[in-house]
Write a structure and sequence with these properties.
This is Sodium-dependent noradrenaline transporter. The protein is mainly alpha-helical. The protein has 13 helices and no strands.
Length: 308
């Protein structure tokens, strides 16, 4: 039995992903499933995909709030997910680099493995070649657009973490004679390669979506939360064995998020611990206890983001 046949059988017996169609109770009249519809895209600016409506109305429940001044109640499901995330972060950080250094071997390498699997699978999809060509073919005219340079600068500063203090915090644990210049070059090169490599995976599936929707790639390409929580899951949901591919994709997002969370929290914990040691002199503050305070405080603040 080939892989596609096995995947099709799995789709028959496994749970159907809830963002695959417009036939659910939360869907509105503006829902349009362009990946399975044989009709051309209607001429309407209010259309939303099934994954977009699922993200907005089921996960975020944005329709139950009138704005930022109407927070609503915290959603139990998101609070539990956040609590689990912060527990994992604490277990990764409470011993400092001794514990986080071991966790990073998993969280930093797993995304590359999953990206490679997704790329190999996406390369076999119709329209994938068009997506890759759209990604790697340079557009000289775009260089005259200031927005392009702005987005590029944001990408570099945010992905490298310039000004966040994360690199300084981790570098403080190095030996005095460590070659920081070499490490800086390696970090920058690995970051640039990762951004380019993940772009290959993304535009493979964007090309596939454009092929299915019979439209240009520029109309399905987006950025930010819309890409990782709406566009990409929608494309993966149409594959045979979509449950498996979706699990792999979201597992990759979890490991990436843990990496970012570990770096940001380690920066805060290291800086505050150093400052408190100077303030209290010989009185020592246990790393485990202080990490618990910082992580718990971060979790309590994050609850505001779990509201409607």
């Amino acid at each position: 039995m080939n892989v596609d046949k096995a995947a099709q059988l799995a789709d028959m017996y496994l749970y159907v992903l809830p963002w695959t169609s417009c036939n659910n109770s939360w869907n509105t009249n503006d829902c349009w499933d362009g990946l399975t519809s044989e009709e051309p895209r209607p001429n309407s600016t209010t259309l939303m995909s099934p994954s977009e409506e699922y993200f907005n109305y089921v996960v975020l429940q944005m329709d139950k709030s009138e704005g930022i001044d109407d927070l609503g109640t915290p959603q139990p499901g998101l609070v539990v997910c956040g609590l689990i995330t912060y527990i994992i972060l604490y277990l990764s950080l409470f011993k400092g680099v001794k514990s986080s250094g071991k966790v990073v071997w998993v969280t930093a390498t797993m995304p590359y493995v999953i990206l490679t699997l997704l790329l190999l699978r996406g390369a076999l999809l119709p329209g994938a070649a068009d997506g890759l060509l759209y990604y790697i073919k340079p557009s000289i005219s775009a260089l005259s657009n200031p927005q392009v340079w702005y987005e590029a600068a944001v990408q570099v500063f945010f992905s490298v973490g310039a000004g966040f203090g994360v690199h300084l915090s981790y570098a403080s644990y190095n030996n005095f004679n460590n070659n920081c210049y070499r490490d800086c070059l390696i970090t920058s090169l690995v970051n640039a390669f990762t951004s380019f490599y993940s772009g290959l995976v993304i535009f493979t599936y964007l090309g596939y979506m454009a092929f299915k929707q019979k439209t240009h790639i520029s109309t399905v390409a987006t950025d930010g939360p819309g890409l990782v929580f709406q566009v990409y899951p929608e494309a993966v949901a149409t594959l045979p064995g979509s449950q498996i591919w979706s699990c792999l994709f979201f597992l990759m997002l979890i490991t990436l998020g843990l990496d970012s969370g570990m770096g940001g929290l380690e920066c805060v914990i290291t800086g505050l611990l150093d400052e408190l040691r100077l303030s209290f002199g010989k009185k020592t503050i246990r790393r485990e206890f202080f990490t618990a305070i910082v992580v718990a405080s971060s979790f309590l603040v994050s609850i505001t983001n779990f509201c409607q």
